[in-house]
Amino acid sequence: MGLPAGFDAAGAYRAMVRMRLVEEALVEAWADGLVPGEYHSGIGEEGINVGVVSHLSGRDSMALDHRNTSPLVGRGADLRTLMLEVMGSEDGLNRGWAGHMHLMDPDIPAAADGIVGTSGPLAVGQAVANARLYPGRVAVAFHGEAAMNQGMLMESYNMAVAWNLPVLFVCKDNKWSITTYSAEVTGGDLVERARSFGLAVEQVGGNRIEDVYRAAGRLITRARRGKGPGFLHASCHRPGGHFEGDPIVRLLHNPRGQAEEWGPPMIQNARAKTGGSRGDQLAAVKVLTKRGARAARDYTVRARMDPVRHGRRLLEQAAVDRIEASERQDVEQAVTEVRSAMGSRATFGVSGGTR
Amino acid sequence: MGLPAGFDAAGAYRAMVRMRLVEEALVEAWADGLVPGEYHSGIGEEGINVGVVSHLSGRDSMALDHRNTSPLVGRGADLRTLMLEVMGSEDGLNRGWAGHMHLMDPDIPAAADGIVGTSGPLAVGQAVANARLYPGRVAVAFHGEAAMNQGMLMESYNMAVAWNLPVLFVCKDNKWSITTYSAEVTGGDLVERARSFGLAVEQVGGNRIEDVYRAAGRLITRARRGKGPGFLHASCHRPGGHFEGDPIVRLLHNPRGQAEEWGPPMIQNARAKTGGSRGDQLAAVKVLTKRGARAARDYTVRARMDPVRHGRRLLEQAAVDRIEASERQDVEQAVTEVRSAMGSRATFGVSGGTR
Amino acid sequence: MTVMRYGQAIDFALGEAMARNDNVVTWGEDVRLIHRDLLARFGPERVRDTSISESAFLYAGIGAAMAGLRPVVEIMLIDFLPVAWSGIANAASKFRDFSGGRWEVPLVVRAGCGGWYTDGGQHEQTLWGQLSAYPNINVVCPSTPADAAGLMLTAVESDEVVVFLEHQLLSEQWIDFLAGNSRTTVSFDHLVPPDGVEGEVPLPLEPVPLGQAVIRRDGSDVTLVSLGVGAHRCMEAAQVLTASGIEASVLDLRSVYPLDKDAVLEEARKTGRVVVVDEDYVRGGLTGEIAALLLEAGVTTRYARVAVEGTIPFAPHLEYAALPNAERIVTAAKRLE
Amino acid sequence: MTVMRYGQAIDFALGEAMARNDNVVTWGEDVRLIHRDLLARFGPERVRDTSISESAFLYAGIGAAMAGLRPVVEIMLIDFLPVAWSGIANAASKFRDFSGGRWEVPLVVRAGCGGWYTDGGQHEQTLWGQLSAYPNINVVCPSTPADAAGLMLTAVESDEVVVFLEHQLLSEQWIDFLAGNSRTTVSFDHLVPPDGVEGEVPLPLEPVPLGQAVIRRDGSDVTLVSLGVGAHRCMEAAQVLTASGIEASVLDLRSVYPLDKDAVLEEARKTGRVVVVDEDYVRGGLTGEIAALLLEAGVTTRYARVAVEGTIPFAPHLEYAALPNAERIVTAAKRLE
Ligand SMILES: Cc1ncc(C[n+]2csc(CCOP(=O)(O)OP(=O)(O)O)c2C)c(N)n1
Ligand SMILES: Cc1ncc(C[n+]2csc(CCOP(=O)(O)OP(=O)(O)O)c2C)c(N)n1
Ligand SMILES: [Mg+2]
Ligand SMILES: [Mg+2]
After folding, report:
1. Chain C CB within 8 Å of residue D296 CB
2. Residue B207: helix, strand or coil by DSSP?
3. pLDDT per residue over A64-116, tens digit each?
């Protein structure tokens, strides 16, 4: 199977590089204390985001989850106002009211939400409107695999099928839900689950951008023609963990340090005079060890699933260099401007303080 | 395939007759103005209720929906306090606080709830407790087919599988959700949906009591042995409609009368100067006609699916007569006592009134 | 002017709004049958039945509103909205703000509410106080057909989120459906306020502004503040109080939020005695908000509340005692003397 | 006595309750990692991770409570409880009543709440006012490690439903998780109340009764009423007010429901000036309830409220201005002079 018809490997690579650079810039800004609170990066999801977003234009709408920066970048969102918003500036996309979890760009149109599972029903609503106001336009919902246990997301699969709506549900399966291994809390197979609602289903490796492009294209074309909603399952990996500062990532990067912090109270608790049986405690150790091992494996084996690296292989080196250089220049320019607009803000700009 | 091992046809018939008589007594009391508000009867579901409940005893628990009278009767609930509660007496099972939608009997133990879909997660919780406190005991959730589009019910399927709990979900599929034909608002196939969560699935005609008994038995035995939760799909029919006074039943029983009430405003609306296109209005007529035809068909064809009639065929006439006579005596006795305890109450006992 | 029933007036106003603007659509459970007149007029694309999926179809309303429609999402009874509460608490109330004011959510959430017809503690709540707690959520409950029509028109044409509550005791549709009024053996005549169930509606329709209370009866001794059926109960109580020489004002708020602060304060200054009559729970609601307004404004007044103190019991006589009935209002008003 | 951090104290108390009673179990998202100490002590059967299914696992807690366990269901952040609101509004608050008093629901709902660390309008709410609106729902939010431990013990041992809110700014676990406190480039020192994050806890543990407020500072000129981080902000404000010659009392309610009515009235009678400081929304909450108590009791007092007026904005300086900070409290208190 060669590259799919209509697939622009250079354009796709350019888009992935741009996403990655913006994400990296924000991760760095977070570490520098410039991004307040949480930041959930989309590093590792670029293949999925680009593969889907390449098919969208005009009034095609998007309902996004907490990893929303990359899809917005892919749809051409303004880098400066986007980054300013994530940093909490009144010059940001949403005047500082949104932060990274609720980025809202009515011009795309795209809206993100921080409540897990809402992208599904929000996209269903967008699709009802699109079908009436902009026939041929689709709505895309992005969500994680763990979100599929949220009832309202499942409800929205049902609604989309019952109303035969132009929606695409994109499940980015990174196998984890914060610190929980999703398979431990999930029954059955997620692809079968989606299929059982009557959704048209495709399944791909999310790092293989050309496969994502092809599968998403099929589902989106179907939806545009009024043939009903689709579900795309795409695997991926979250090298940065759930969010910046993720304790599991800290554990993997600095096992000694984290063990020194977590170990003593756990040992003390396990040794408490009252508590579970020896069996209970062994079971606890087993649970934690298993989870740690899974994390370690995923963070080494799955890290090879980097979509950007894969996309690079589809191009000649010269093209790669050209693209990377121009995107880097673009993003760096924006970052410089944004950083200088923010100034230094160790106290998050709270001038009054309380003490 | 003969009758299943352990199946007591006479006992099952007795239980179905008892349920039917109690339901009929309450339906009559409703018509007489003795039951306030709504009443959702379980007439037509006796085969399912008996087939499942026959396997339960002791600390096996039940989470019930709005059609809860029959399962309670099947578990031996006291007829008098049950009926008094449904009529709103302070001498009722729950001192008049519950009414028929929230009947609660801690001695069974069984609890009903009026929010569609909650029986699933409530049974999941019961099952966690049973597994810890009363190993070998199961929890049973009863729900309709339309409830399966309620997110929390789907969530509870997932939980039950992920935690490998001793739960049985019983879906009583009467094809209707109040006045909505469930298939019109449901995507995919419900049995496939349940299976996709990893539930062990059985599917039966709910009027065939022996089939229900066999399938429920298999799933309950599995669950008791710690092999995980099950899902039983059983078809049935609601000859009395969604609740007493159901407008669709009124339409079927008295088409002329209902048409005289509904017709003129609808015609007037369809003729309004502003409104939808002629096509919209034709589509509306089609939607309503189709729904009416489906209702009419179900209320004639499916009415033959009476589980009580089917159960009667499994017995000799003499046994049937004996059972019916003794159950009738028992229930009539209770009804007489309850009615006399209630007295006449055209105003629902509101002595003060407000005007 | 024409005479309409309460539910009919609401659907009539919604029909007018749908006729004026093609982007107004409605969906919810059983709406095609319940609002069959609208279905007949506008067709099935604009009047849709949903599955029992309150969370998804409310969020879908929000998504649709932001994508260009003006959805009227019906949640059957307000008691079922808690299933979908996040749509109100985290989405409808927040998205305009999150967008930095760049994106409106022109959504109406329509639902039945209220009791007096024996439907138990899970089908008779009002929840209007808690709903009004969230930012940007307008909440109304009309007490007459005219207000019902006028407020529905305003709600649909507003660019903001409006929760439109229709009282089940006043709506011919719900009383038939839920109270079993189709049998001849029961009668709600002693409970149903005649001015609430049927009345004149101005034609062409006149929008009723959000946040504007109306004085139903003018008196100088005590002010009874309420809305929905509560306003009628206050009228009954006022009647009774006259016999004891007490002349009561009755203020029908119509909106829980925005609250007509000026009207409340003016009345309070006038009579110096305020009884808030609320079919919602006593805590976390309207009674507290009005108390706070009074204290903040430094209006010294005697004050009492007549509200729902706990779970609404099923049995008719217990239910009646638990709801803010005229006897309870009279007692409270007399105690302020 | 031993010194503990706030989150540590809660888990310590929960551990003690689990040790005393084998039927106490806990579940929620990521609890095995977040409460790894409890996992290590009691094993995976009693400390369970759930899927992201708040509705189902809250209802499951109710079912389990009625079937003999004492579940502590953790909803991560209270902002996510609206997804499962029906479990509170229609089930946990109602089932004992529906049963006619025959069936208890010994359930604890545990969740983080509150802001000041820049997590946006969907992760910093408190919602305690709306929660307390429903019948039979006790709601607490401790402001110190000692109260945190004592209230958790009480909550688990109570036969009633208790919503136990741990303030995210005070909890070392949440501030690390949600505010990114693991980096060295940010500091919350100027925002974190030292007496809230760490303090002495009596050993053996002493239960703190529901509905009992505590006076943190005694003054004669004005009473500042609050709970959670708000109580600390009141202490800061009291400090500032001294400079202007105003001596403030600070009443830490600890429970939103039951509310310590006697303590509030006594303080109000003493100072004649009440400022209610509430990290919840201004409507439908605590500020209104206290106003109603004052008016009902006929206690003439000057009154002001400092609460959250709308969506909590993300940007740190906007967030700070929107929350009930010490400056706002000082201004409100001075206005009552
Ligand atoms: C209703 C709700 N519950 C819990 C959370 C907290 N939370 C945020 S992201 C997340 C995990 C989501 O996992 P998944 O859907 O797989 O997406 P991923 O983060 O892996 O991309 C959780 C539990 C939330 N934001 N909303
Ligand atoms: C959350 C919620 N939404 C809506 C309702 C109103 N309602 C009560 S029963 C019902 C239909 C249920 O259909 P199904 O699950 O198939 O059960 P059936 O009545 O057919 O036995 C509806 C919509 C409710 N009680 N709760
Ligand atoms: Mg994931
Ligand atoms: Mg059904």
Report:
1. yes
2. coil
3. 999 999 999 999 999 999 999 999 999 999 999 999 999 999 999 999 999 99
Three-state secondary structure call for residue C147:
helix
User: Of the candidates D168, D201, D234, which is a domain's last residue?
Assistant: D201
- Do B173 and C25 meet the contact criterion of CB atoms below 8 Å apart? no
In a domain, C88, yes or no: yes
Which residues from C are below 8 Å from A when comparing CB atoms?
23, 25, 45, 48, 50-51, 53, 55-69, 71, 84, 86, 90-91, 94-95, 97-103
Answer whether C36 sits within 8 Å of B267, measured CB to CB. Answer: no
A110-to-A51, A60, C67, C148, D297 alpha-carbon distances in Å: 17, 9, 10, 35, 52
For the segment D113-118, the average pLDDT, to the nearest whole number, is 96
Residue in chain D nearest C310 by alpha carbon = D135
C165 and C309, same domain (yes or no): no
pLDDT score, position C141: 98
Q: What is the mean pLDDT of residues D191-201?
A: 97
* Closest ligand to Cα B179: 2
Residues D145 and D224 in one domain: no
Test the C interface: residue of A102, A128, A163 with most C CBs within 10 Å:
A128
**Which range marks the domain in which residue D296 is found?**
214-335
| Probe site for chain A from C22, C46, C55, C94 (most A CB atoms < 10 A) | C55
Same domain, D242 and D140: no
Could you tell me the CA-to-CA distances from A85 to A263, A339, D322 in Å, in that order? 38, 12, 18
Residue C31 and residue C138 in one domain: yes
Q: Identify whether D206 is part of a domain.
A: no
Listed residues C171, C201, C231: the one ending a domain:
C201
CATH of the domain at C61: 3.40.50.970
D196 and D232 fall within a common domain:
no
Give the Å distance between the CA of C177 and the centre of ligand 2.
13
CA distance B185 to chain A (A): 5
Q: Do D285 and C285 touch (CB under 8 A)?
A: no
Q: What predicted TM-score, i.e. pTM, was given to this entire model?
A: 0.98
CB atoms within 10 A of CB A245: 21
Question: What are the tens digits of pLDDT across the range C223-278?
Answer: 999 999 999 999 999 999 999 999 999 999 999 999 999 999 999 999 999 999 99
Instruction: Give me the residue from D55, D121, D311 closest to A151, CB to CB.
Output: D55
A: neighbours with 3+ CB pairs under 8 Å? B, C, D
> Rounded to the nearest 10 degrees, what angle do helices C145-157 and C6-20 cross at?
30
Instruction: Tell me the nearest-neighbour CA distance from C234 into chain A, angstroms.
Output: 41
CA C214 – CA A21 distance, rounded (Å): 60
Please tell me whether residues C102 and C135 are part of one structural domain: yes
| φ, ψ of residue B85 in degrees (nearest 5) | -65, -45
Distance CA D101, CA A338 (A): 62
Nearest CA among B86, B80, B144 for reference residue B117: B144
Nearest to B31 among C53, C118, C185 (CB): C185
Sort out which chain A residues have CB atoms less than 8 A from D47's CB and list them: 284
Which among B269, B348, B353 has the least Cβ separation from residue C37? Answer: B269
pLDDT bracket for residue B257 (50, 70, 90): confident
Co-location of C220 and C195 in the same domain: no
A51-62 average pLDDT score: 98
> In this structure, is residue D223 part of a structural domain?
yes
ipTM of predicted complex: 0.98
* Closest ligand to Cα B150: 2
At residue B344 the predicted structure's pLDDT band, cuts being 50, 70 and 90, is low
CA of B66 to the centre of ligand 2 (A): 8
**How far away, in angstroms, is D90 Cα from ligand 1 center?**
26
Q: Is D221 left (phi over 0), alpha (psi -120 to 50) or beta?
A: alpha
pLDDT tens sequence across B72-96:
999 999 999 999 999 999 999 999 9
Residue C122: other Cβ atoms inside 10 A:
25
Residue A352 scores a pLDDT above 60: no
In a domain, C208, yes or no: no
Indicate which CATH number applies to the domain containing D243.
Answer: 3.40.50.920
* Number of domains chain D is built from: 2
Measured distance CA(C124)–CA(D258) in Å, rounded: 24
* Mean pLDDT of chain C, nearest integer: 97
**Domain co-membership, D325 together with D254:** yes
